[in-house]
Automatic annotation (TrEMBL), chains A, B:
Name this protein carries in UniProt: Molybdenum cofactor synthesis domain-containing protein
InterPro entries from the UniProt entry: CinA (IPR050101), FLAD1_M (IPR056596), MoaB/Mog-like_dom_sf (IPR036425), MoaB/Mog_dom (IPR001453)
Gene3D superfamilies recorded: MoaB/Mog-like domain (3.40.980.10)
Top-level taxonomic group: Bacteria
Domain (MoaB/Mog) ranges: 13-175
Length: 255, 255
């Protein structure tokens, strides 16, 4: 147990690749899914970019973000069709060749044996930047790809979920971010100053305020985040006590 | 009617601001909502970034993206609480002061007259970068903000929607992107080469392939996009004819 290690904040970035997200046709689910998964690994998602199926846009984002976070994830563009250019774009950005990964080819060979055979288009899904390892995909055969600190994942959320499962517990991370939540039927603007002073009084805590309008009334949930349990607890206690003193009863866990 | 104008592609970028998106707590809806709205305005969403409630991260993204797209939208961080720092971060990035906009103050004064009065925290929502105009908000009083080509919008999706309504038809845009869709119970990998050659044969068209697994079977929807109706029509016709020739009946409009 070293203090240096436990204080280090491990970070990740995510690139969501796909014209279908930028056109509004498809509602992205991977940002929230990967963010939640990273929290449990003790890694903070620091930045997300959504880029088109365009090699230059993908390459630019990859080279900037892999340098400034500990881990870089990408989703989308690793299927069998002509608009799936993620592997080629990333390999070009890294300056490495694309090769057919023998283990990926064997996985696809087995998967498609009873499903019409391994066509040339399907074999595209075995192509990886030279030097990559594979991320198992128990949902649909075609694996994800790891190259150094870059994790190249599927775009379809339930396939991405399977790849995340396969990675769970395998990444070096820092202290998990703890959180607690309370809700109250209060307009956040009534207590904005109180929230700010409570956060300031508890170093290492963060208070997020999430207003809503339901059943004809305004209310808000308040989420306290900290990496240390004692900081989380004392900030939560102060928040609850302060709200109740001001005449706003709270619901533990949120409304 | 000049050819130059109609051929120009108008572009936008979007910055989604908020720790709640990066922590996975909140599922973003604004990317899809703004993308769809932009399509109808004849403007293409080219890039999205999701950044934390952090002045440096917001400022960096604003200065890069406002320079490389015709329009820049931001969502989130314009409420009354201490974690709402969007206006200050953008003003700092632009090198302009923050002022209380008199018209915004009057709007908030009226809105809160029957709702507990205009407190100091609520008055924060009248603060704008000097030189801004307002975007009406019929949902909840606090207006959005326009500064040159930057549109600073709410984070709560139904409030953002109201602001987009107020902007509809007011932005200069190019030719709207037209689209058509067909679906078929085919594995996309079976017809990947046909899709690629069909797209190549119809300059100005784009074919997106969106596989799914339903009712125990694989299928895919195919979306053709083009700015010219005749290009869209001929590409769609070729796609439908080619699929049916290959033994894959299509459903117009998608499955």
């Amino acid at each position: 147990m070293s203090t240096v290690t436990s204080d280090r904040i491990w970070t990740a970035a995510l690139i969501v690749i796909g014209d279908e997200i930028l056109s509004g046709r498809t509602q992205d689910k991977n940002v929230a899914q990967i963010a939640s998964w990273l929290n449990v690994q003790g890694i903070r998602l620091r930045e997300v970019r959504v880029v088109a199926d365009d090699a230059a846009a993908i390459g630019e984002a990859v080279n900037i973000l892999r340098a400034r976070s500990d881990y870089l994830f990408t989703t989308g563009g690793i299927g069998p069709t002509h608009d799936d250019i993620t592997v080629d774009a990333i390999a070009a950005a890294l300056g490495v060749d694309v090769i057919v990964h023998p283990e990926a080819e064997a996985v696809l060979e087995r998967y498609y044996r009873e499903r019409g055979g391994l066509t040339e288009a399907r074999l595209r899904m075995a192509r990886v930047p030279r030097g990559s390892s594979l991320i198992p995909n128990r949902m649909s055969g075609a694996p994800g790809i790891r190259f150094e600190n870059i994790f190249i994942m599927a775009g379809v959320p339930h396939i991405t979920a399977g790849m995340l499962d396969a990675l769970t517990g395998t990444l070096e991370g820092g202290a998990p971010l703890l959180s607690g939540q309370v809700g109250s039927w209060v307009a956040e603007s009534e207590i904005a100053d109180f929230l700010a002073s409570t956060e300031r009084a508890h170093a290492g805590s963060q208070i997020g305020s999430y207003p809503f309008f339901r059943e004809g009334r305004v209310g808000a949930n308040f989420v306290v985040r900290a990496t240390q349990q004692n900081v989380l607890d004392s900030c939560m206690d102060a928040l609850v006590a302060g709200l109740e003193e001001r005449g706003w009863p709270v619901t533990r866990g949120g409304i």
